[in-house]
Amino acid sequence: MKKSTENATVDYEPEKITDSVEIRFFKTVSGDRCSVHGKITKDGAEAGSVTYDSRNGLYIVSLKPVSSLTSEEQGAVLAGVHGCVSEILAD
């Protein structure tokens, strides 16, 4: 039987950003398209998400609500996300 598309999903261990904030990433590859998604949590509660799509270069970091993280935690998330996504894409 011939495959029409080959897909692969990889889950990553949570990346600790601060003592209470972490991001759990997963990467999906379908053909020549790669997507990276992440769930931002603080003390176990959802605090936002990260999305990167290689097809159109879309890169979104969303905090829900923005007040769920202190300004220091927000800065740490924004500073850490790019390195994490770059490492995942290189994997």
Folded structure, characterized:
- By secondary structure, the chain is of the alpha+beta class.
- The protein is 22% helix and 46% strand.
- It has 1 helix and 6 strands, in the order E-E-E-E-E-E-H.
- It has one helix at residues 71-90, and strands spanning 7-11, 15-16, 21-30, 33-42, 45-53, 58-63.
- Strands 1, 2, 3, 4, 5 and 6 form a 6-stranded antiparallel beta sheet that branches.
- Strand 3 (21-30) and strand 4 (33-42) form a beta hairpin.
- It is elongated.
How is the topology of this model organized?
Elements: E1 7-11, E2 15-16, E3 21-30, E4 33-42, E5 45-53, E6 58-63, H1 71-90
Antiparallel strand pairs: 1-3, 2-3, 3-4, 4-5, 5-6
Query: Which word captures the global form?
Result: elongated
Number of helices: 1
Sheet of most strands = 6 strands, antiparallel
Structural class determined from secondary elements: alpha+beta
Distance N terminus to C terminus?
29 Å
Instruction: Spell the H/E element sequence.
Output: EEEEEEH
**Number of β-strand runs:** 6
State the helicity in percent bands: 10-25%
Instruction: List segments where confidence is low: pLDDT < 50 over at least 5 consecutive residues.
Output: none
